[in-house]
């Protein structure tokens, strides 16, 4: 869960990013958009059974935005990245395959309502869609957004395992016999890539630990599958 201090910092950063893109919405409209964003992240990960967002929540967004300064982005790049990250998991339902696209649509509607130009909204939409991580990102800002989104893969192994367990809780309604093989396939696809990260910064500082973590996760998953009999 995000702390009150993290939420306050998120709100300040969100408002600064909107202003940096040339929008000057009334204070009440900006506050309303912020509250709507909070509401998105407080919806269940699985609306059918009410599983809470154990990982894809405001704490994840706070962690993401805390990494943005490391890239020393100029405007408007900073604001584009901030808002893409702020909205990239706003729609998250474990039962649907199009969360990134739906999040992009939600971001566009919200930001247009705040007076952000259509062209800029389209740019943010594209950055959000890129977080499906299905293709290599040649766009420099998309590379930043995607690397930050996957940043938790490179934390200390015990922390990585905590995050993995949190993701499993979001899929609590999915049987182990279904979840573990599907998760294994996803992780193996990531490890098969020449690089996990697209930016030079993350490749240098995080790639090695991320690969170590994913290899350990594969071993954990295989052990869990074997234990099922």
Automatic annotation (TrEMBL):
<protein>
    <recommendedName>
        <fullName>Metal-dependent HD superfamily phosphohydrolase</fullName>
    </recommendedName>
</protein>
<dbReference type="InterPro" id="IPR009218">
    <property type="entry name" value="HD_phosphohydro"/>
</dbReference>
